[in-house]
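TASK: fixed-backbone design
INPUT:
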């Protein structure tokens, strides 16, 4: 039997302290709970005054207190009742749809570590026990909120036998520094996070790698190219540049609405104008943007142009763009080409894409990844056909807006199998993994 190291005795003490502190603050409901039927229920903070439950099959709901002291659920993010109910027994137990559950004794330790000139806040979450496990570092997308507060994957992976290191990116949450979207800076920060995760996990760390969502799909492979790791998981990320992403998203907007090649040509004129504005750092290009808005503003296809950057720029006046836009995209290398990194990256990669992703359409990325697969790069791809950005399935409301309902069945399970290094199944829900020949 493996000897328990003094480091893990200390971690267990810290965990007990953290749980008692959480109980005192009234937030001890957050955590992973093992239900009597074997399922794991994750409870996370939700919108103000709410909690959120998740199951490993992707189902989720928002929880709101009832007059009787329990919690009633609404489907995904729709606000529509789904019939599920949750009750808590203080910090000791949970009851989900009449099934009792007890807290999983995950081992957590908070830390502060030095990155590139700033100190970042992180947290290692380990599965129960003292055996070796793979460890994954969660790499941010472009969000401004705290990963330590918001990332449920830090518990969902740990409940599936994977160590997880989450951290607040610079300029967010409890971390120092100025917010940036400069990929090289963020990749070096991720490398420091990986080293801190390895240090804290000690002898328990086996395989170690990254999982990056959205913008993290540019950052995580770059970090792995600088300092190799054992694996990279990219969720709803891209193998094209940010400006190419915007153009591809606009083209998909036009095609989805059923407009013709003339409409696409006009929409690309708009994309050219917004690219000029972005390239200048929002100092030049306002006249060009005003000109294409005047030229095409009355076209029947104009209202469907959304893209990525472009939708915001079309909807905002010049004063608003000058004031707000530089902060929203601070540091973004708009012409960043990820292919030189991917063409030379020998780290096994899993790319998970949404077939209905409007923000990051997967078409060109899948073509490029297929070419890399045929060139022998160790890449596996899987498309969840009904998922949009963030890997969420959705319904459409009467106004045509998408309302997220859940994550796809198989999404978490596929990541877990890949991170563990297991042989992949033929299918995960609606997704079929495609591997390098």
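OUTPUT:
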């Amino acid at each position: 039997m493996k000897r328990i190291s003094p480091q893990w005795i200390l971690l267990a003490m810290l965990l007990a302290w953290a749980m008692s502190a959480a109980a005192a603050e009234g937030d001890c409901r957050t955590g992973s709970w093992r239900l009597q039927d074997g399922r794991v229920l994750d409870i996370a903070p939700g919108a103000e005054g709410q909690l959120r439950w998740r199951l490993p099959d992707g189902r989720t709901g928002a929880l709101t207190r009832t007059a009787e002291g329990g919690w009633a659920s609404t489907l995904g993010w729709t606000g529509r009742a789904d019939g599920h109910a949750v009750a808590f027994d203080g910090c000791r137990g949970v009851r989900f749809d009449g099934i009792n559950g007890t807290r999983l004794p995950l081992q957590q330790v908070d830390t502060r570590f030095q990155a590139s000139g700033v100190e970042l806040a992180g947290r290692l979450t380990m599965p129960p026990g003292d055996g070796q496990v793979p460890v994954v570092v969660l790499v941010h997308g472009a969000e401004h909120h705290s990963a330590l507060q918001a990332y449920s994957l830090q518990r969902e992976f740990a409940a599936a036998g994977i160590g997880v290191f989450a951290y607040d990116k610079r300029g967010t949450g409890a971390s120092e520094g100025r917010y940036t979207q400069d990929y090289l800076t963020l990749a070096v920060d991720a490398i420091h996070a990986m080293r801190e995760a390895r240090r804290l996990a000690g002898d328990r760390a086996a395989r170690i790698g990254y999982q990056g969502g959205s913008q993290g799909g540019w950052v995580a492979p770059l970090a792995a190219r600088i300092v190799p790791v054992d694996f990279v998981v990219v969720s709803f990320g891209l193998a094209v540049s940010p400006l190419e992403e915007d153009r591809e998203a606009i083209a998909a907007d036009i095609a989805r609405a059923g407009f013709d090649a003339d409409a696409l040509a006009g929409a690309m004129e708009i994309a050219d104008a917004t690219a000029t504005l972005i390239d200048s750092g929002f100092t030049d290009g306002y006249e060009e943007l005003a000109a294409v808005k005047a030229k095409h503003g009355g076209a029947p296809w104009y209202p469907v142009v959304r893209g990525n950057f472009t939708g915001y720029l079309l909807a905002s006046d010049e004063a608003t763009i000058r004031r707000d836009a530089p902060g929203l995209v601070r540091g973004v290398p708009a012409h960043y080409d990820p292919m030189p990194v991917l063409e030379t990256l020998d780290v096994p990669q899993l790319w998970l894409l949404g077939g209905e992703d409007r923000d990051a359409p997967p078409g060109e990325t899948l073509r490029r990844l297929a070419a890399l697969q045929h060139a022998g790069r160790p890449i596996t791809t899987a498309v969840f056909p009904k998922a949009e950005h963030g890997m969420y399935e959705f319904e459409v409301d009467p106004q045509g807006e998408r309302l997220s309902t859940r994550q796809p069945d198989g999404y978490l399970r596929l990541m877990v199998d890949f991170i563990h290094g297991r042989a992949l199944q033929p299918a995960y829900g609606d997704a079929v993994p495609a591997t390098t020949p």
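COMMENT: Residues 1-26 have pLDDT under 50 and may be disordered.
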